[in-house]
Amino acid sequence: MVPTIPYGRQNISEADIQSVVDVLRSDYLTQGPAVPAFENAVAAYCGAAHGVAVNSATSALHIACLALGLGAGDWLWTSPITFVASANCGLYCGAQVDFVDIDPRTYNLCTQALAAKLAHAEKTGRLPKVVVAVHLCGQPCDMAAIHALSQTYGFKIIEDASHAIGGRYQQEAIGNCRFSDITVFSFHPVKIITTAEGGMAVTNDAELAHAMSLLRSHGITRDEAHMTHASDGPWYYQQIGLGFNYRMTELQAALGLSQMQRLDAFVAQRHGLAKRYDMLLADLPLVTPWQHPDSYSGLHLYVVRLRLDLIHKTHREVFEGLRSLGIGVNVHYIPVHTQPHFARMGFTATDFPQAQHYYAEAISLPMFQDLTHTQQDRIVAALRQELSA
Ligand SMILES: *Cc1c(COP(=O)(O)O)cnc(C)c1O
Q1: Domain match, 283 and 193 both
Q2: Domain boundary among 260, 276, 311
Q3: pTM above 0.85, yes or no
């Protein structure tokens, strides 16, 4: 049997391996020079002033919410079509979570739905403190519109750019935080660049960066300027707040730094593959990804929607058919509000009709930098077979 083509896979070069081995032979496996070097490289790439590297994007979202002051009695809003972490970060802080339906073309949070929900929330005194804008598949949200609404209604913005490093919005790098307070990246192996596990929060605000760097490491400082009194001596540190151990290791940072050198090439390869999918799939009963003209997507995912009105199979039958042919398709995502943990808060599947509709039709095709044209042809042939039978 032919091996399954995964939906995502890391690209590891000899230079990546050597950079990790070099760290293993060095003095520092953690809290050495590689983490700040990686932070500087990512921040410089994005055009952000500060980077705070952590052990996952989930941790980055958590400390971003805390740094923005999210807590009990507050609301965090996000898209229902995302990984659960985009919403869980609000729950970690004791806040309540609500969702805004998606745009039927981009599958990102719909700014008209956001505007309407904000106008209503203002009347009921339930305005959000934080909105997490998720750049689904790597395509940026309508950040200018979300930012304009934040000026009217006074909420903070976190960009969940876990899918989007290397992408651009209005010709500028995602992560420059022109329209947000903090942007978060994930370096999980299926994402665009990897550190195995890992994440980073970038921001232009020095106070937010400082708050997040304390939160990542127990709330401990060694900087006398931040202590309540003069240092007791060279051994001294103070815990000035409650933080966590969310630190990234030197091994991870060295891998990330090495991967950064190929980021633009990775995204360009993904664009080449997406163009080829667009062309090869054009005559099939599918909706291929629509790209807003303001967007240069990171293209973490390539999602097609089945035209169920034109085919004689269910979503599940097509999905299972593709899997049985060795195509590692996936679904991104199960609407978060339908997860039992969220449904228990009172959400029902029909609360966000566009999200529900999307979930009933979406399939993520394999998309990763080393996907070959031969593999891609196999995927397209399998899809053609499944959709015609
Ligand atoms: C992967 C992902 C996360 C979480 O990333 P980790 O680094 O695995 O914690 C958060 N949000 C989105 C949209 C993701 O895809």
Answers
A1: no
A2: 260
A3: yes
